[in-house]
Amino acid sequence: MKYFFELGNFKGLSEAELKRVLEIYGINTDTVKNFSSKILIIDSKDIDNEIVVRVFNRLGGFIRAGEIIDDLDSFLDLDAKEKVVFGISYIGNKDFDIDKIQKLSVQIKNNFKKRSISSRYLLPKKYELNSAQVTTNSILEKGFELCIIENKDQQIYGKTLAIQDIESFAQRDYNKPKIDTKMGMLPPKLARIMCNLSGLKEGTIWDPFCGSGTIPMEASILGYNILASDIDREAVSATKSNIIWLGENGYISDILYEAFQFDITRPDPKILNKLRKTDIDAIIFEPYMGPPQTKILKPEKAEMLLSDVRELLLRFRKVVDNSFKGRVIVMIIPSYKTFKGWKTIGVREIFDKRWNILNKEYTQEDLKWERNNSIISRNIFILEKR
Ligand SMILES: C[S@@+](CC[C@H](N)C(=O)[O-])C[C@H]1O[C@@H](n2cnc3c(N)ncnc32)[C@H](O)[C@@H]1O
User: Fold this and answer.
1) Are residues 28 and 172 both part of a single domain?
2) CA angle, 155 then 158 then 188, to 5°
3) Do 159 and 117 fall into the same domain?
4) Are 327 and 200 in a shared domain?
5) Are 153 and 299 found together in one domain?
6) Is 290 in the pocket of ligand 1 (CB under 6 A)?
7) Whose alpha carbon is nearest atom 13 of ligand 1?
8) Cβ(288) to ligand 1 under 6 A?
9) pLDDT tens-place string over residues 295-328
10) Looking at 164, 193, 219, which one is the last position of a domain?
C-alpha cells in the first residue's frame, strides 16, 4: 500500500521524526521516499490504514497523512446512504488555480446527485483545508478529503486518513496554567518531535532543563515515564502544575513522573547517586539559551553568549558521564544571528567520538527549527552512545 505524509514547516525534522517512529513500529525506513518538498511517500506492505493513523497521531511535524488513490473514478464511485461531506485540498508547489478545485467539487457533487447521493463540499481558503475545517465538519467520518498532490512532473491523488490536531497543540501551548515567557518555552510540536527523535518505544525520559515542562508534557502524552529537573524551584513547580493540568484535561491518565530541583553545574551528590541508580533511557532537553535577543548580534556578543552555553553543556556532559546509563540524547544547541553570519557551538566540542551523531542517518537536511527573521535558532542533535 502507498501512503502520503504531508510535512510541516521544518522538512528535516519531520523526515527524521517519521523515520524514527516507523522504526519503533518495525517498519523499514527505506520505504520512505521524497515525492516533493511537501510530501513523503511510504510504499510498504508492512503498513495499513490503522498503522498510518497510529503513527501519524504520535507525530508533531506533519500536517496530514493518507492513502494514495490508484484510480480516482472508482474511488469516487462510492456508495452512501447518508449525506457525504467532502473537501478538496491542493498540495503542490505551483500556483494552482483555485477555480479548478471548485469545478472538480461541483463535478463530484453532480455525479453523486445522479446516483441520488446527497453531498456537501467544503473549499479550502487557499489551497488546503485547514485542520479545523476538516475536524469540525467531520469530513473524515462523513465523507472524505481528496488531496491533489503534485511535484514537478507528476500529479497523484490521496485520501486523507488523519489530520494534525492543531487545536490540542495550541491548547497545551497557551492554556496550560504555567507559562514562562521570560525563560522561553519550546513549541509543543517541537517538544513532541524531539521525544519521537529518541526512537524509544517506552521507558524513562529525563529533561534536566525542564523550564515549565514542555518536553515532559509531550513525553507523558506519549506514555513515557518522566524525570524533570531544573535549577529553578519555580520552574520545577510549574512543570508539576502543567503535568497535573494534562491529567485534568484528559491528555494523560496515569503516568510516573518526578520533578526536582537540580543544578547541573553543581550536582548534589545524593541526587547524582539516585540518578545513577535509575534506569533512564533517554535525555531530551533544551538548555539555557541565553537571554532573549531582539537585534542581530555583534559576533563578539554571540561568542560571549555561546561560551556560557558551551560551559553549561560541558558541565552537563560531566553529569552524563557520571550518571547516565541510557544510550540516547536528543538536544538543542542554539545558533545566534550576527552581522557576520550564524554562530553556534559544534556538537563535537561537547560530545566526543564515544557518541554517534545520528542526524544524517535520517535526513540530508539540517535538523533545525528556525522562524523567519529569528535571531536565535535551534539546532537539534540525536546522539547515541556507541
Ligand atoms: C530555555 S529554558 C527551557 C525551557 C523548556 N524547554 C520549556 O519549554 O519550558 C532553560 C532552562 O534551563 C534552566 N537552567 C539554567 N541553568 C541551569 C543549571 N545550571 N542547571 C539546571 N537547569 C538550569 C533554566 O532555569 C531554564 O528553566
Assistant:
1) no
2) 115
3) yes
4) yes
5) no
6) no
7) 209
8) yes
9) 999 999 999 999 999 999 999 999 999 999 999 9
10) 164
- Burial level of 101, CB count in 10 A (0-12/13-18/19+)? buried
Between the CA of 165 and the centroid of ligand 1 the distance, in Å, is: 28
Which atom of ligand 1 is nearest the CA belonging to 235?
Answer: 27
148 and 184 in a common domain: no
Does the beta carbon of 214 sit less than 6 angstroms from any atom of ligand 1? yes
Rounded to the nearest angstrom, the distance between the alpha carbon of 185 and the centre of ligand 1 is 10
Q: Please write the tens of the pLDDT for every residue from 91-102.
A: 998 778 888 899
Using a 6 Å cutoff on CB, does residue 22 contact ligand 1? no
Statement to judge: residues 128 and 181 lie in one domain: no
Q: How far apart are CA 162 and CA 5, in angstroms?
A: 10
Count Cα neighbours of 81 within 13 Å in the Cβ-side half-sphere. 0
Number of structural domains the chain divides into: 2
- Claim to verify: residue 213 and residue 80 sit in the same structural domain: no
Same domain? 105 vs 248:
no
Query: Measuring from atom 27 of ligand 1, which residue has the nearest CA?
Result: 211
Question: CATH number of the domain that 94 lies in?
Answer: 3.30.2130
Rounded CA separation 62/88 (Å): 18
Q: Using a 6 Å cutoff on CB, does residue 124 contact ligand 1?
A: no
pLDDT of residue 79: 85
Answer whether 206 contacts ligand 1 (Cβ < 6 A): no
d(CA 56, CA 48) in angstroms, rounded, equals 12
Q: Does the CB atom of residue 35 touch ligand 1 within 6 A? A: no
Nearest atom of ligand 1 to the alpha carbon of 207: 6
pLDDT band at 254 (very low <50, low <70, confident <90, very high): confident
Q: Give the domain range for residue 96.
A: 2-164
Residues near 259 by beta carbon (within 8 Å), at least 6 away in sequence: 210, 213, 216, 226, 227, 228, 229, 236, 237, 239, 240, 243
Measured in Å, residue 362 CA sits from the centre of ligand 1 at: 28
